Amino acid sequence: MSDHAHVVLDETAMIAADQGNAMASRLIHRSHTEAGWHLYAPACALVEADRARPGTAEHLAALPGIIVLDLDLPAALAVAREGTWATAHTQYAAGPTAERPDGAFIATTAPTHWAGQSVRVLDVSP
After folding, report:
1. Which pTM was predicted?
2. Which phi and psi (to 5°) does residue 99 adopt?
3. How many domains does the chain have?
């Protein structure tokens, strides 16, 4: 990765971060201390992470380097077309935008989940 990065945490990476995963912790640290590093937590993925590991959502949302992405209308429309809210919101958040013309990486501990999708994956498995 370069000196500038946009990374979206999926629910597996959120749980890993809450459990002290070193790679996820480094991403959080960089997003908090280095200009140009942006770490996003889609709200729907936060819900799924918190269901799997209660307290995860509050913990991550309280960290200063994480940008929580609300479920706005465009995201809701994208979610409505997909099977799971967490996956759909994460994939939507990683897509290209005016601020991120190349989109964002998806940090995950389950890279095979994203196989066949048109997303860039950052494996944070231990």
Report:
1. 0.93
2. -75, -25
3. 1
